[in-house]
Amino acid sequence: MSRGMGSEGRLSRFLQPPALRQIAVFCFFEAAFYLAYLYGMSFSQACASPFWFPDAVLLCALLLTRPRNGWVFILGTLPIRLFSPIAQGSPIAQGSPMWFLLATFAIDSAKGLAVATALRVFLKNPIRMGTVKEFGIFCLVAVLLAPAGSAFFGAAALHAIGRDYWTAWEQWFMGDVLVHLVLTPAILYWLFNSRREMRMPRIRKSLEGVFLAVGLILTCWLAFSTRLNTMGILETRYYFPMPLLFWAAIRFGMPGACGGVAIITIFSVDAAIHGRGPFYGESPADTAFSLQQFLLLRAAPLYLVAILIQQKENAEHFLRESEERFRTMADTAPVLIWMSGTDKLCVFFNRGWLEFTGRTLEQELGNGWAESVHPEDLRRCVDIYHTSFNARQPFEMEYRLRRYDGEFRWILDRGIPRYTAGGKFIGYAGMAIDLTDRRLAEEARQDLIHASRLAMLGELTAMIAHELNQPLSAILVNADAMNVLLNLQIAPMDEARQIVEDIRRDDLRASEAIRRIRALVRKREMEMLPLDINATVAEVVWLAKGDASRRGVDIREEYCENPHLIRGDVVHLQQVVLNLILNGMDAMKDNEKAERCLLVRTLRNGEGTMEVSVRDCGHGIPSENLSRVFDSFFTTKQNGMGIGLSMARSIVQLHAGRLWAENNSDGKGTTFRFTVPTLARRPTQREPAAKSKEYLAEKT
Ligand code: ADP
Predict the structure, then answer these.
(1) 179: nearest Cα among 64, 47, 53
(2) C-beta of 575 in contact with ligand 1 (< 6 A)
(3) Edge-to-edge order in the sheet of strand 658-663
(4) Residues 91, 226: Cα–Cα separation, whole Å
């Protein structure tokens, strides 16, 4: 079947194999072609048929069948043309040589094939003209070019049997024009598209159709079936059917127009054959010409109106359908959705939004939604919306929106500009997600991370006291010494200066210790910044060293050369490292003093990540617990809380990294490793990497 047929379920089912059906279809075609031929030849008084019906039947068959089966239908026309009694009895066939019949067969077949091929190539669906453009292509190919071209050959054949060349050309051309303008669309629309085109087959519409058909038949009968006038087609009653024809085209689209034209054609052809109505008293040649003009002038504008209306209705229907689809989708989506127009005012809120705010669509439309936004967030929201809108940029903002129960909930609102398929800006669409629960969970996690950090620092109280005590005692001793020096008669100024310098250095050391501890104690949001992992690790090792020396643990450090920058939060990453160091020291508490050794390393592992590892020589982890140690509240320590490693893992995951543990291959202790993605560029001198050198220099 043709491409168009593929979409026409009913007929394609009918025309599909088995072979019996194909034979039935062929017989149907033969009968239709025979009738068309008979009708076409019935203008016995005309020089050539003014209305070449067989062309319409053949073209429809060629359009509806697969291209490779076209030859069957073409050959099927030959016996009718050569041997049917009507052909033999017609004025053209009578006495016409066989070559003439074969020539006209060849011309019509070639024309049919050429038109069918061209329509297949140029139209999306060759059996249905949905737009004015498609109708224009159909008219150009089937109604104009093919008839004009074939008329040259047809006229030549007629000229060879004694006709005037240009008169024959004109008659041949008009006969083809008319049939493709009047009959071909009627066959295609009524037999293969009627159900699709008439979208509202309601009873009222059916009654309207019957009324129209009856009205048309009556007015056509009045116009064509009497011999009362002699004023030709100018007589007013020939225009009676016109309002009804336009009514049919406007209300029923192409099927209506085709049906109307078919009715008027039947009456006018009958009148032409019998010399009645507008064709009364005309010569055969004039009758044919009058009939052609009469129908052409009525059919062409009618089809144009029908297609224009159909095109508009199709567009509206498509729009309605897509709007309906969107509305259904938006209403079932578990998010809040809004849309605004080019004037920035909101034109749509989905059911989710309305249920959330507990307000009506009318209340929310325009700027009504702003009434539900928290007053503290409103100005910021409006600013972001307007700025992004003017720049046609997507935006993302968080604000509090009042829920139906009065509670303000945090909303994440993402807006994007909307454009038509043609690229015209038509406003914005946004999707708002309720963030409150997520925020609460995040806050709880931050609290937990902070609490676990405080708990960990609690273990370091001795170290903190030591870190502060040492410089304070040194300052005290130096102050006493200064006092003694000042009581001397001649104070040794060089020694005094040295003492003051020592006091200053000790004071700076104490302040630095306080700064670092305060940084760890403070509760703060995560702040992802470019970081040098060496400096980050070195700082926390420096803090832990006091505790390590108290516990008799030797902490060794190995920092990689030229580390890549990472993006991360310094305090949180330090919390991870400190936790691993403290756990490692705990695991070695039963070791001989000489075997309490901890190795902290950083390395570039070549996979776009920096790796930090903490290796101890402790008791190790039973293999079945290697992954469980990261579970919340898993602890083997008497006073342990079991949240340190689980917090450490979630911090590392927030940095898009990985934390894992493995027992050392020499059977002594465990190594914890974590990775963090690099920023994919090397640090420059002015960037924090320089800081690591300071620390390393200070450390050595
Ligand atoms: P806590 O230290 O409060 O127990 P963690 O989550 O930090 O909580 O550690 C959970 C458990 O993992 C510890 O109780 C311990 O059994 C095990 N663990 C952690 N680090 C090590 C280590 N370096 N060597 C052996 N076991 C360890």
Answers:
(1) 53
(2) no
(3) 554-558, 597-604, 609-615, 670-677, 658-663
(4) 28
Q: How far does residue 629's CA lie from ligand 1's centre (Å)?
A: 6
Residue 167 CA, ligand 1 centroid: distance in Å: 107
Beta bridge partners, 340, equal 346, 428
What is the distance in A from the centroid of ligand 1 to the CA of 419?
56
What is the DSSP code string of 264-306? HHHHHHHHHHHT-GGGTT--HHHHHHHHHHHHHHHHHHHHHHH
Assess whether the previous peptide bond of 18 is cis (omega < 30° from 0).
Answer: yes
pLDDT at position 313 is 81
Give Cβ neighbours of residue 252 (< 8 Å, ≥ 6 apart).
197, 198, 209, 212, 259
pLDDT tens digits, 660-678: 999 999 989 999 999 999 9
- DSSP run (H or E) holding 465: helix 461-487
pLDDT confidence of residue 50: 64
**Who contacts 333 (Cβ-Cβ below 8 Å, separation ≥6)?**
350, 352, 431
Q: Are 223 and 277 in contact (CB under 8 A)?
A: yes
Alpha carbon distance 230, 511 (integer Å) = 121
Rounded CA separation 499/497 (Å): 5
Only one residue has tokens 């807006």, namely 415
Strand order in the sheet with 346-349: 346-349, 336-340, 425-434, 408-419, 395-402
What is the atom index within ligand 1 of the atom nearest the CA of 672? Answer: 23
Say if CB 102 and CB 96 are below 8 A apart: no
Of the candidates 120, 119, 175, the residue with the CA atom closest to the CA atom of residue 147:
175
Bridge-partner residues for 419, per DSSP?
Answer: 425
Q: Is the CB of 660 under 6 A from ligand 1?
A: no
Which positions of the chain have pLDDT values less than 50?
Answer: 1-8, 14-15, 44-47, 89-93, 229, 231-233, 681-700
578 lines ligand 1 (CB under 6 A): no
pLDDT value of position 658: 94
Pocket of ligand 1 contains residue 634 by CB under 6 Å: yes
The answer to whether 499 and 478 are in contact (CB under 8 A) is yes
- Rounded to whole angstroms, how far apart are CA atoms 291 and 52? 13
The DSSP code for 670 is E
DSSP string for 390-401: HHT--EEEEEEE
Q: How far is it between the farthest Cα atoms of the chain?
A: 157
